[in-house]
Task: inverse folding
């Protein structure tokens, strides 16, 4: 194959199979529930919308305010609610997934410096293609 053609095909493949650009991901309604003093864990919520043409996979969340942020889903079986750890959350094209009370949620150990309603906390969402998006979550009461 001639060099220019191969180059063209390579570029074409990259264009067609390219990763979901960060611009195709929308995050909104990010908030963290204000916890009573001494609560060991905090819960956070947000919605992620994939406006791209290819699936996007959320693989984790980090924050400068928390040692770690876990992705959980609350499931009720036989009347008992349990939390299941989620390693990733896949968003199909055009699809929105919300972390909301009673379903998926972010769970993080309470920081030594307590968070109060009105505080702003930075969260970074990491995607399987290496992309990441930052969002500011407001601390508030439900
Ligand atoms: Cu949880």
Result:
């Amino acid at each position: 194959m001639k060099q220019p053609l191969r180059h063209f095909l390579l570029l074409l493949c990259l264009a067609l199979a390219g990763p979901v650009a960060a611009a195709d991901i929308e995050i909104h309604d990010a908030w963290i529930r204000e916890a009573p003093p001494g609560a060991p864990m905090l819960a956070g919520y947000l919605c992620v919308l994939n406006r791209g043409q290819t699936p996007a996979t959320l693989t984790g969340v980090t924050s400068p305010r928390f040692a770690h942020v876990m992705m959980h889903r609350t499931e009720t079986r036989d009347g008992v609610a349990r939390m299941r750890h989620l390693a990733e959350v896949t968003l199909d094209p055009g699809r929105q997934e919300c972390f909301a009370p009673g379903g998926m949620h972010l769970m993080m150990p309470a920081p030594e410096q307590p968070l109060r309603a009105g505080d702003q906390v930075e969260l970074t969402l990491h995607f399987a293609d290496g992309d990441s998006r930052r969002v500011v979550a407001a601390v508030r009461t439900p």
Notes: The chain has one domain: 20-140. Residues 72, 83, 105, 107 surround copper (II) ion (CB under 6 Å). The first strand starts at residue 25 and ends at 33. The beta strands are 25-33, 41-50, 56-62, 70-77, 80-85, 89-91, 96-99, 104-109, 120-127, 132-140.
